[in-house]
Amino acid sequence: MAKRRVTAIVKIQLPAGKATPAPPVGTALGPHGVQTMEFVKQYNAATEDKPGQVIPVEITIFEDRTFTFVLKTPPTPVLLRQAAGLDKGSGTTGRETVGTVTDAQLAEIAQIKMPDLNANDLEAAKAQVAGTARSMGITVA
Hints:
By secondary structure, the protein is of the alpha+beta class. It has five helices and five strands. It has helices at 25-29, 36-47, 76-84, 103-113, 122-135; strands spanning 6-15, 54-62, 67-71, 99-101, 138-140. The strands form two sheets. It has a three-stranded antiparallel beta sheet. The protein is elongated, with a radius of gyration of 18 Å.
């Protein structure tokens, strides 16, 4: 089988199991000639076991208008907000603290994010997640 040439790689974040062909999916895939409904069906089937989460997806579009996609782990700020029970982070980082997460919650988030982080071990991953928490106004207890 001959290699297919890649024409584009599109990255979008969608709610798990609830993607629709409306924007942002339609506007991201339409210019490349990809069948939007086909992607939506496959994405929703792949993410139906993760309700309420935002799942980033990396779509590789080939020259013959076919595609493949890879699901990523949820964004770190989303996981931190869920752990702290917040709607949003601090508006004035460094001056305002909006919530706290425990070290155990931090380790759990780092374990979830490990495949997508450029960390060699869990401690380095925890440091990256703690930095994101700090920038959101969340303290680690």
